[in-house]
Design goal:
single chain, 332 residues, 4 domains, six-stranded mixed beta sheet
Length: 332
């Protein structure tokens, strides 16, 4: 049998003590030993019992359950029940919540029990991190979960993830590429901007500031590199009178992220190998090639002023609608 502290009655001794009266202002301790395993383990119940303590039921406000086992020399607090109804496990000062613990808590079996229920839900859950899978109820496969009104989780088919092909759809539930953006509206005769790219600056914007799309691809060494870019560039960023050009820049000899080869200006000029075209087509080269020969059937054949073509014998120029002239080509 376990040894009880001096001056304390063991439970079976207490049963044989008639008329025991305790001071209500002092703590009274009752002990119970583990008689099943008979291994000298003792559980102590400490509380303000007062007079007629035999009628009290534990746990009560102010009660402390203590444990001493395995030859330990000191008693350790296991469960504390405060006068305000707060319960502490491993602490005698549960000050914030109805139940506080100084250690980890968990279920006795994996993936078996619930925390709350569909009819009794927790209003908020606060945590530094969540580890493992989270399967919220009320959601369907595909639509992406996002923070909706008031921060509540929500879904919408406007954002759709195809987990089989790993495609993302915006405005479509059937994406057919890595990123598939779709816009459905009632417009029939004007352009709808489906994708918008914005570039801002913390400084003062000047001519040359732009927004671009960079293309990359895997190289022979297995590392991805720049293949070129397409960009819109301010030539005059002055608000109200701004002008911008479109620039096309493929990669050349691994130089930067691309080298400009063609530009379409705000005036409608197209420049090839020039950044400042002065005509509707301005080619910075010493040769222009028309690959396919064409022979107008007659001088009155269909044509528009400015059309040019050639064959083995003549160079043809259409000087007015359906009016051609020609000049002979001779070897020298």
């Amino acid at each position: 049998m376990a040894t009880y502290p001096a001056g304390i009655y063991a439970p079976r001794e207490k049963e044989n003590r008639n008329g025991v009266v305790y001071d209500a202002t002092k703590k009274t301790v009752a002990f119970a030993e583990d008689i099943v395993n008979n291994d000298n383990e003792i559980v102590a119940v400490e509380t303000l019992l007062g007079i007629n303590d035999d009628a009290q039921t534990l746990p009560i406000a102010g009660g402390v359950l203590k444990g001493k086992a395995g030859g330990k020399s000191k008693w350790s607090t296991e469960i504390f029940i405060g006068a305000d109804g707060k319960v502490g496990i491993g602490t005698t000062n549960p000050s914030t919540f109805k139940l506080e613990t100084t250690g980890s808590i968990g279920p006795s079996a994996d993936n078996t029990y619930d925390l709350g229920s569909s009819g009794r839900r927790w209003a908020n859950v606060y945590a530094a991190s969540f580890v493992g899978g989270i399967i919220p109820s009320g959601f369907t496969q595909g639509p992406i979960v996002f923070g909706g009104a008031g921060g509540a989780l929500a879904q919408d088919n406007a954002l759709f993830w195809d987990n089989t092909s790993k495609y993302l759809g915006i405005g479509t539930t059937g994406p057919s590429s890595l990123l598939h953006v779709s816009k459905d509206d009632a417009i029939t005769n004007i352009i709808t901007n489906v994708l918008r790219l914005t570039h801002t600056s913390s400084g003062t914007v000047a001519a040359g500031f732009g927004t671009g799309i960079r293309f990359e691809g895997e190289r022979s060494n297995g590392v991805s590199g720049a293949m070129g870019y397409i960009a819109a560039v301010w030539t005059d960023p002055t608000a109200g009178v701004e002008d911008a050009d479109f620039v096309f820049a493929p990669m050349l000899n691994s130089s930067g992220i691309g080298t400009e080869r063609m530009r379409i200006t705000s005036a409608g000029n197209v420049g090839i190998e020039t950044t400042g075209p002065t005509a509707k087509l301005d080619i910075n080269s010493d040769i222009l090639r028309l690959r396919t020969a064409k022979t107008p059937a007659t001088a009155g054949a269909a044509g528009n002023a400015g059309d040019i073509c050639w064959d083995a014998n003549f160079l043809y120029v259409c000087v007015a609608t359906n009016s051609w002239t020609r000049v002979a080509i001779a070897a020298w």
